[in-house]
Amino acid sequence: MSTLRVHDILHDRVLVSRESARVIEDAVAELIRQGRADGDAARNEPFTIDFDGVGGVAPSFVDELVLIFVSQCDIMCGGTGPRRLVIANPPTRLSSKFEAIARGHHMSIEAQSDGSWLLADARKTDT
Amino acid sequence: MEMWIVLVIKPKHEFKHAGELPTRFDRHDPREASFDVHSVDIDLRKCTFVRPQAALWCVIYLTLAAKRGSRCRLLVPEDYGVCAYLKSLGLFSVLKDCSVEVDDRGVGDVRNDQKTVLPITPFTTTADASDLTNRAFERLQACDIGAANLTSLVTELFSELALNAAQHSDSSIGAFGCIQFFEFTRGGSRITCAVADGGIGVLASLCRNEKLASRVTYDWDALELAVRERVSGTGDAHRGIGLYGVSEDVRRPSHSLLLHSGIGSLNITEDLESFAQRTRLFPGTMAFLSIPA
Fold first, then answer.
1. pLDDT band for position B54 (50/70/90)?
2. Residues ≥6 apart with Cβ < 8 Å to A52
3. How is chain B split into domains, by residue range?
4. CA neighbours within 13 Å on the CB side: how many for B159?
C-alpha cells in the first residue's frame, strides 16, 4: 500500500491553509503514480495519507487535499479510475464538516475501526 | 463654520458586545470615507465587565477611526480587576500600537495569565493565520486545558475563522484574534475564540459572487446564507466549507457562535439552532464562539 507521511513535508503542528495543502501536491501525484506502478490501483487498494505527528487540521486544508487527490487521480486515470483514500492517524474526530468535504468531491467518508478515515468514490450513487 | 464632531461612546456597565450600543452610533461608520469625526472616546470607566467580543469591537472601531485621522482614546475601567483583565487580554498594547491613547498607568505588568491562551493579536495574511493557529495550539498544549480532543477542536475552529478574515474581509486594518479560557466559580469552564476585522462585511463579500448577489439583501440574510454548505463569495464551487464547518460544530450542547457583520448578527446555539437579526453596527465582521472545556 502506498503511503505519504504529511509531517515529513509539512512541519507545522496544525495544518491550516489551502496554500499549505498545495505544497504536498507533487508528493500526492507521486503517491498515485507509485501506487499505479505497484498495481495498488488494479487491486483496488486505497492510497494512504498519514497524519501521524500532526496535531490539528483545518477543514480548508483537508478540502484542498481531497481536491488535489481527486484531480491527480483524474489526470492519471482519465477520470474513470477508482478513487480510494485512507487518511491515517487523523488528528481530529470525523464530524459532519468532513462529510460535507467528501460529499463536495463526490466521495463518501467513514471512520474505520483503527481510527483512520476511508474516502471512497461515490460517483455511482450520484447518478 | 466647520463643525467638529466629537463622539463619546459609553457602553453599559456590563459590556457584552456591540449589539448593545445605542443606535445613534450606527451612522458613524469609520470604514466610510465620509467619516468626519474629530475625536472618538470609548468610555469604559464605569464598566465592571467587558467580554472579549466587546473588547474586539473597541479595537476595530478605534483602529479604523485612528486610521481616518480622528483622535482616539480608550478610557480604561476604574475597576482595577477589569483593567488588569483587559491588559492581560492585550487590549491596551494593541490599541497603543494603532495610535490610540490609553492611560493604563498603575496597572501592573501582566502576569503569565494562563487564562489568556492567545492575547488579542493582529494578523493579515493566511500565513499569519496559520502561524497564529500554531501558536495557539502550542499554548493550549502547554496549559493542559480541558479534554484530550479540545486542543484540536479549538484550533480547527479558530483557524477557519482566522482564514475567513484573512481571505475575504478586505480589511484596511487587517484582523485580530484571541483565545481565552474561563473557569467559573459555580463550576464548569469554557474556551472562547474571537476573530474580528474592519473589512467589507459578509454581505459585500458574498455579493462579489454574481450567483449569490441576487440572494442577499441585508447583513442578516447574508449571514444566514454564509453558514450554508459550499457558499462562498469567491464563486469557486470547491470553496465555502470553513464557516459552514464552524456552524455545524457549534450545534452541540453548550456550544454557541455569534457572527456580527455590519448591522446584522447571527446566533447559533444548540437551543436556538440559528437566529439572525438586525442589530447595531459592527464596522466589519466579528465571530465569537464559546465551547465547554
1. very high
2. A5, A7, A88, A89
3. 6-292
4. 30
C-alpha distance from A64 to closest chain B C-alpha (Å): 8
| Chain A residues with beta carbon closer than 8 angstroms to that of B127 | 17, 19
The distance of B140 to chain A (nearest Cα, Å) reads: 11
Q: SS3 of B232, please?
A: coil
Query: For residues A106 and A123, is the Cβ–Cβ distance under 8 A?
Result: yes
Cα(A96)–Cα(B246) distance, rounded to whole angstroms? 10
- Residue B183 CB neighbour total at 10 angstroms: 12
> A81 near A104, Cβ under 8 Å?
no
Instruction: Tell whether A80 is within 8 A of chain B (Cβ).
Output: no
pLDDT at A108 over 80: yes
Closest residue of chain B to A18, computed from CA coordinates: B126
Contact B159, A58 (CB under 8 A): yes
Residue type for B134, please? Answer: N
Chain A hits for B242, Cβ within 8 Å = 58-60
Q: Do B133 and A58 touch (CB under 8 A)?
A: yes
Containing B212, the helix (H) or strand (E) segment is helix B210-213
pLDDT of residue B134: 96
Helix or strand holding residue B51 (H, E): none
CB pairs under 8 A between A and B: 91
CB burial string B75-101: b at 16+ within 10 A, e below: bbbebeebbbbbbbbbbbebbeebebe
CB atoms within 10 A of CB B278: 12
Model confidence at B232, pLDDT cuts 50, 70, 90, reads: confident
Residues paired with B261 in a beta bridge? B264, B285
Residues of A whose CB is below 8 A from B244:
97, 100
CB contact under 8 A, B163 and A16: yes
Best A60, A62, A65 member to test B by mutation, with max B CBs in 10 Å, is A60
Say if residues B177 and B118 touch (Cβ distance below 8 Å).
Answer: yes
Domains belonging to chain A, first-starting first, are 3-126 (3.30.1370)
pLDDT (0 to 100) of residue A79? 66
